[in-house]
Each structure stands twice: as structure tokens, then as C-alpha cells.
From TrEMBL:
PANTHER family reported for this sequence: DNA PROTECTION DURING STARVATION PROTEIN (PTHR42932:SF3), GENERAL STRESS PROTEIN 20U (PTHR42932)
Name the record gives this protein: DNA protection during starvation protein
Entry similarity comment: Belongs to the Dps family.
Lineage: Bacteria, Pseudomonadati, Pseudomonadota, Alphaproteobacteria, Hyphomicrobiales
NCBIfam families referenced in this protein's UniProt entry, alphabetically: PRK09448.1
Length: 173
């Protein structure tokens, strides 16, 4: 992963070294953009889902949005607490996300479930990499925050994938 340009930091009494804070602010900015993106991917699915089990899936997508929206705030507050400037606009999120753009023409519930599963999986992978990066930098608090977010994303992935994971002749797929 290419290192971002130097991050301008606000003065802070945060005990982390300035170079670590700068690296973690850049890392957290990527995850802030991704959290905002995923939050609204869930809303896109919520607004447009059709098909069997509509109300259950409609409600699930809204619950996933709310959970992800909580991660937005956690990440932004850690980022700004380290002296960074949170970039939380739609445009900034689009520029910083690790996710692929969500198709705007999906309608069927199973298609939304599968597409959101892809996004949850992609962010889960990026979170694992982020935890490793924070560990290597010696920032246990950022690693812990990303671990907390990762647990939530893993649970969301479980909720999504459970809709299409079925046993086939006694074998799990």
C-alpha cells in the first residue's frame, strides 16, 4: 500500500509521536470513507429491495446501516482525537473508500444480500490489514478500535451470508 502524502495535524497532547499520529490519521481516513460508503450501501439496499421476505430483509438492511453509522462516529472521533481533520463528506468518502461502487439497479433481495456480502467482506479484509498496520506503528488504541469495528463487520457479514448458506446433501456450502 502506498503511503499517503504528509497529513497536517492539529496541535494535540495525544501521547503518540507525530509521525505515528499522521500515519494513523491517514489509515483512519480510509476507514472513515469506507464506513460512510458501506452505511449508505445498506440504505441503498433498504430503499430498493423487492422480493421474498421483503420486510425482514428491509429491516435487516436498516439495522446494518445503523450499526455501520455508529462505526462512522467512532472512527471520526479517534481520527480527530489524534489531531486529524475528519473528511466525512460524500465526496471525501467516495475518494477514500476501499469498496467498489454499489450498483444502482439491484432490486432482488438475494442480489442485495450477495452484493452487500461482498462489501462487508472487502472491508473486513481491509480492517485486518489496518489492525496489522496500527500494531506495527505501536498504536494499540487504533488497533483496538479497528478490532471492534471488525467484529461488527464480521457479524454483519454473518447476517447477510446466512440468507444463502444452505446445507446440500449434508455438506455445508
Amino acid at each position: 500500500m502506498a503511503k499517503p502524502a504528509t497529513v497536517k495535524l492539529h496541535p494535540s497532547k495525544n501521547p503518540q509521536k507525530e509521525n505515528v499520529r499522521g500515519a494513523m490519521v491517514a489509515l483512519l481516513q480510509k476507514h472513515l470513507g469506507t464506513a460512510i460508503d458501506l452505511s449508505y450501501q445498506c440504505k441503498q439496499a433498504h430503499w430498493n429491495v423487492k422480493g421474498m421476505n421483503f420486510i425482514a430483509v428491509h429491516k435487516l438492511f436498516d439495522e446494518l446501516h445503523e450499526a455501520t453509522e455508529a462505526f462512522v462516529d467512532l472512527i471520526a472521533e479517534r481520527l480527530t482525537g489524534m489531531g486529524g481533520q475528519a473528511q466525512g463528506t460524500v465526496q471525501a468518502a467516495a475518494a477514500n473508500t476501499v469498496l467498489e461502487a454499489y450498483p444502482l439497479d439491484i432490486v432482488k433481495s438475494e442480489d442485495h444480500l450477495r452484493r452487500l456480502s461482498d462489501s462487508y467482506s472487502a472491508w473486513g479484509k481491509a480492517l485486518i490489514e489496518g489492525i496489522e498496520e496500527a500494531d506495527e506503528a505501536g498504536d494499540d488504541l487504533t488497533a483496538d478500535l479497528l478490532t471492534e469495528v471488525g467484529r461488527g463487520i464480521s457479524t454483519g457479514l454473518y447476517f447477510l451470508e446466512s440468507h444463502f448458506q444452505v446445507e446440500d446433501a449434508g455438506h455445508s456450502t
